[in-house]
């Protein structure tokens, strides 16, 4: 994989009737620009430019693709185009709007409405740094994910899966709307070739079936990621990776520590969404929406002081064991817990 990211188009470049204002972000699959249309309206434009397949020197318009990567590049391009077209049919406040789609510079551009605000990831980091007892209030989490799920339901109705739901792909606008972005076009096709597997999933948010080639993905795969996002909103950091959980699952332990802070019902929702077995999760967004909207039935387990201490002790013991093991592995002495 090339280490240098392709150079973004410089400000003032004209593409498909739009004018680039500046780059907003460079990711593994391409570059997102702030641009303006002929009427002076702001738009966001995503350019297909996978860093592992193409390079572009500063000041150039056309990406350079080595001959051996050309077929994969074209396959990804086609998929980016197809998925963009599918996304363009969806009109929902919680799904980023695709306004236009065009080919130029031997690549493809997706024009979206420009969102002002910050990603949920930015909010989580800010809230976590404030070190309050709760990262987000329960009512905030419920209404936020109610919005996300409304959008996701429509996406699934259009026979699409998002497959990379995570706080960095949920945008919170300045007027307080939650909008799903980054429908990671091209992800699925490219992953089949093997060498593109890495950007396909995000540790902690990717369901176990995304790590296996033989298993079926479906709405339950996005639902796992939604559960992981709710978890991140409660804890301030992502849950353990699915393969790690399959070895030793600490999810319930981690969630138990949040009892009393968040309702038992919300904790159960997260556990349900994040079941390792896809069949044990909500099978549709609708099923999850129903559960998440059961506001009236909030129960809180109040932990006694003794229980809280017991939990802290458990963490201490398990952390100590882990450290002993790490030292053992690092020194080649093996673990010798007393
Ligand atoms: N429609 C948009 N409006 C404003 N900013 C956007 C928009 N789409 C993407 N961005 C910005 O670009 C970043 C990357 O976009 P994303 O679609 O997640 O691509 P990737 O993660 O594949 O690079 C986002 O985190 C966000 O900051
Ligand atoms: Mg993204």
TrEMBL record:
A family per Pfam: Pkinase
Coiled-coil region(s): none
Entry annotated with the keyword Nucleotide-binding: yes
Entry EC number(s): 2.7.11.1
A GO term, aspect molecular function: protein serine/threonine kinase activity
TM segment ranges: none
Top-level enzyme category: transferase
Protein kinase domain segment(s): 18-293
Keywords assigned by UniProt, alphabetized: ATP-binding, Kinase, Nucleotide-binding, Transferase
Superkingdom, taxonomy of origin: Bacteria
Keyword Transferase: yes
Protein name: non-specific serine/threonine protein kinase
